[in-house]
Amino acid sequence: MPSGRVHDRVTVVLSPLAGLGAGVWGQRWELATLAIVGVLVSGFFLSPDLDILSKPYQRWGWLRWLWWPYQRFIPHRSWLSHGPIIGTVLRVAYLIGWLSLIGFGLSWVGQETGWWTWQWEATLAWLEKSWQQDNQAWIIGFVSLEIGAMGHYLSDFLGSVFKRSRPRKPHQA
User: Membrane-crossing residues (predicted)?
Assistant: First the structure.
């Protein structure tokens, strides 16, 4: 299995390639930028290795406690963490769940104290309008997150294949 340093290098190599592909496909530089950022975020912060005490887990700093339940319920290298598409969807949904919970909590405190109110309907309306106006950006955003994860899966797979293909040294007594 490759080290965290190898996974980081794969992420760095894939990011401009994804940006180039998105820029050519969408013919907009902001889509290329979105793809580059998506791959980097996926590789450095939303890595499949959030299910263990890894470099991406450590990068969350004092917020890494958010991933503690994920680590307890998702077995390392299972199809839930390292499965194409499902792994990325699960990590994004997990993070959105935490952000929503925190947002609802802050909204409740704000309303109770009278400091501010949050219009959740307005937020949902904005998301819907954003999708309708530029669904291409949403698609590229998700695909770039998956490309970052796929680089991880692929390097794990190739590392395992390489390790198995090497001749074993005879056991010496």
Answer: 92-110, 137-159
Task: Give every CB contact of residue 36 below 8 A, 6+ residues apart in sequence.
Answer: 15, 16, 18, 19, 144
Average pLDDT over residues 86-100: 95
Helix (H, G, I), strand (E, B) or coil at 25: helix
| Collapsed DSSP state (helix, strand, coil) of residue 164 | helix
Residue 69 is predicted with a pLDDT of 95
Q: How far is CA 126 from the centre of its chain?
A: 23
Contact 44, 54 (CB under 8 A): no
Q: With 70 as the cut, is the pLDDT of residue 83 above it?
A: yes
**Cα distances (Å, whole numbers) of residue 111 to 97, 99, 116, 123:** 21, 18, 6, 16
Q: State how far the alpha carbon of 55 is from the alpha carbons of 44, 48, 58, 149, 153, in Å.
A: 8, 11, 5, 15, 16
